[in-house]
Amino acid sequence: MNIEESKDFPVSTASLKEVRVFSREVFEKLKLEQDLKDELVLAIAEAAQNIVKHGYKDVENTNDRMEIKISLKDGDLEIGFFDKGKPVIPENIQHRKLDDIKPGGLGTFFIKQIMDDAVFKKDQQKWVNHLVLTKKI
Amino acid sequence: MSYKVTEEGNISTVYLNGEIDMDVTEKAKEVILPIVETGKEVHLNLKDVSYMDSSGISVLIESHQKALENNTKVVVKEVSKSVLKVIMMAKLEQILNLE
C-alpha cells in the first residue's frame, strides 16, 4: 500500500500528543505490526519535540506551525518535518554518550536507532528546516 | 497525565497514568522530586503509562540521581511493555531499579 499524508501543528509541547495521534492513524492504515508502529511514532515524536525544544529555544510564544508528512512508496517510508525555527546546523547535532548517564540528549539517539537515515535537506523556500527520516519497511 | 500518591511507612508510591512526554515532564518532576528529597523510598508505578519518550526517560534518570544524592532509592515498578522497550533502547535497565 502506498500512502502520503500531511498535517500541520502549532509549534508547542501541547501539540506532541496530536502528532502521535496523527502518526498512529497513518500507521494504522498501513497495518504495520505494533512494535514497529510504536517505534516509528516515538521517532516522529522525538523529531517534533526537537523542533519545539531546540528550533524554538528561548522563544516564549509563537504562532508558527510545523508540518509533518508521512509517505510510503514501495516499502520506502519517508517522514518529512518542516519548520521555521532556528536554522539547524547538522554537524552540531549529537546525542550524548549512553554511558554518560544524565537527563536529556536521548531523542536524537532514539531517532537514529529506529530509522535508517536522518538528513536535513536544503530544498525549501517556504520553510527554514526540512528534516527527512527514512526507513525501509 | 494523571497521578496518585500513596504512602506506607517509609515508602511513597507514585502511580503515573497516561502518556509521559515533554508537555508533562515538569508536572511529573513536581510530583516526584519533592518526595525523593524528603529521603523517602519512592516507588514509581508505571503500569498505566502507555507511552514514554526521551523526556519521560529524563524524569526517571533525574529521580534516580536525586535519590542517590538523598541516600534513598527510586524503584520503577510494573513497567508496561512499550515503556520497557524505550528504557532498554536507552540501555538503562541496568541503571534504574526495575521491579
Polypeptide structure, described:
The complex is a heterodimer of chains A (137) and B (99). By secondary structure, chain A is of the alpha+beta class. Chain A has three helices and five strands, in the order βααββαββ. Chain A has helices spanning 16-29, 34-55, 107-114, and strands spanning 3-10, 65-73, 76-83, 117-120, 129-136. Chain A has a five-stranded antiparallel beta sheet, with helices on one face. In chain A, α1 packs antiparallel against α2 (34-55) and α2 packs antiparallel against α3. By secondary structure, chain B is α/β, with parallel strands linked by helices. Chain B has one domain (2-98): 2-Layer Sandwich (Transcription Regulator spoIIAA), CATH 3.30.750.24. Chain B contains three helices and five strands; from the N terminus they run ββαβαβαβ. A five-stranded mixed beta sheet of chain B has the order 1-2-3-4-5. In chain B, α1 packs parallel to α2 (54-69). The two termini of chain B are 22 Å apart. The model of chain B has no long low-confidence stretch (mean pLDDT 96). Chain A binds chain B through residues 13-14, 16-17, 20, 35, 38-39, 41-42, 45-46, 49, 52-53, 98, 101-107, 109-110, 113, and chain B through 19, 21-23, 51, 53-55, 57-59, 61-62, 65, 82, 85-86, 89-92, 95.
Overall tally of structural domains of chain A: 1
Helix/strand order of chain A: EHHEEHEE
In total, how many beta strands of chain B? 5
Q: What is the CATH fold-level name of chain B?
A: Transcription Regulator spoIIAA
The helix content of chain A, as a percent range, equals: 25-40%
- The overall number of domains of chain B is 1
Shape verdict of chain B:
globular
Largest sheet of chain A: 5 strands, antiparallel
CATH architecture of chain B: 2-Layer Sandwich
Oligomer: heterodimer
CATH superfamily of chain B: STAS domain
The chain pair forming the largest interface, with residue counts per chain, is:
A-B, 26 and 22 residues
Low-confidence stretches of chain B: none
The CATH topology of chain A comes to Heat Shock Protein 90
Give the neighbour order of strands across the main sheet of chain B: 1-2-3-4-5
